[in-house]
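Now produce a polypeptide, keeping tokens residue-aligned:
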Amino acid sequence: MSETAETEKKGWRERLAALKNIPPVLKLVWQSSPALTGTALACRVLIALVPVGALWVGKMIIDTVVGTLKNGGAFPQQIWLLLGAEFALTGIASILNRASDYANARIADQFTREVSLRIMRHAAKLDLASFEDPVFYDKLERARVQATDRVGLLSALGQLMQQVITLISLAVGVIIFSPVIFLLLLVTVVPAFLGESHFAFLGYTLAYSLTPLRRELDYLRVLGTSKESAKEVKVFGLGEYLRQRFDSIQGELITRNRRLQKKRLWVGALLALVSSAGYYGAYAYLVFRTLSGHLSVGDLTFLAGALMGCSSQLQQIFSTFTGIADQALFLTDLLTFFAVKPKIRSKPNALPAPRPIREGFEFRKVCFEYPGTKRIILNNVNFRLNQGERIALVGANGQGKTTFVKLMARLYEPTSGRILLDGVDLRDYKLEDLQREIGVIFQDFMRYDMTARENIGVGRIDQLKNEPQLRAAAEKSKAIELIDRFPDGLEQMLGRRFEGGLDLSGGEWQKFALARAYMRDAQVLILDEPTAALDAMAEYEVFRRFAELTSDRMAVMISHRFSTVRMTDRIVVLEDGTIREQGTHDQLVARGGRYAEMFELQAANYR
């Protein structure tokens, strides 16, 4: 078997296997809106029966007219009833079509909302490591697309049901006259179906393979147009380079799509001729039978219409079914995303996090490697953070400082070893409860294009309307000075994404990030270099105030500036995944080890 044939065979297997995705999606559609879904189905069934009814009434009208003209009889009064019936069928079909369109549009809105909400809800449960995996990110991107692009599947399923019912009703008339004619139609339509199915599958395969390129295009588009990158794009003259790279990738996408569509055009046209030949061969036979006196003109009209309807419905059914099968392939991405389960989650009957914390954290022989790598970030680390103690983590970039605090917050879990809180393994606590007791501000903290209220309130979202608590958190972080100057106070929109928004400097954004941490009222507060963009004096003031406000709590500070870390109770030096040394600033300087060496190098810059 050739490689192409094997690929095609595999493609069909994947299509048929993907049909199992449809029932759970139909269940989701029904759950989104039972009343609207039931209405749409009823409309489809009634619309499907209109064509055969209209053809039969038309046959009776023609036979009545021909009989009257042939026999020269009086004007047939029943003709008015027949004309009225045809008009009524046309009117009913028009109303039903509009009702169906209305229901489908409403269902699409409901379905899009439901799927989008489920994607957001599921993404919020997944591990941080998932979002740092590019393969997962491609999966997430395709799942996001399903929330909107798969709306067409809902209409296609309704169309398929309508087409099948219409085909059955028309086919009965054709089969009663001649089963052979109907079989001829079926055989000549199959090649066109197979051709369309083949190219639709190739289209899906191409779209799937191009996901990383489309993501790169989106990134280049953002780089070339966002205010965050505008300064460097201008200073380094990157505009033309980014445009050329974008154009090159876009050109590759266009070329590969054009190549596929060109083949589809010529092969599809040839197979369409085969289908047309089948229909007109059957039609010629009906004309012959009518001229031979075996069929009335009304019979010819009915059968010709039914024949054309069958041919059209067969092609549409095959095409719609192919589209549904290929849409179902895309649904695989959505359902696969929903099937991803977080590894870090609460055990059954998990314990509530201790409040207050009495002993603190303890690392016991903790090792950590990022998934998919063999580089050891933390290696056999033993460490204690006591209740009420403030420590600083220092060391060169990539030595595991951020990983250290992510493990404390159970954003990751150790590859081996244990982390205890008050003598209990972190895995034995309720995850959400544990993380509620930890406030973290990372170096790459979020700048929410939302109101000042929301920028603080996300630290404890259930207190979003608690203005005294919001202002107290802003007071601690000095963000209150900005809020009092804002035209709309806490309701001031921040960022430039939306109309009326105010952009802030790095230091001003940082004050809102700190306010979120204070808003959390957590027992453990962590600053992971969120002030790296600030000058030395500004950072010193942040850490000084942070130290004052955490005098009765556990606190972890990460900073490269030794003028700030010396105010902590203990300094921990990380190097090559291990704790190289620890102690107070004076103890470490006196010891003359790695910390003293780094301190001396930094201090020399200020002499």
Residues 138 and 215 are 8 Å apart (CA to CA). The radius of gyration is 35 Å. The domain at 19-339 is CATH 1.20.1560.10 (ABC transporter transmembrane region fold). The chain has two domains: 19-339, 388-401+431-604.
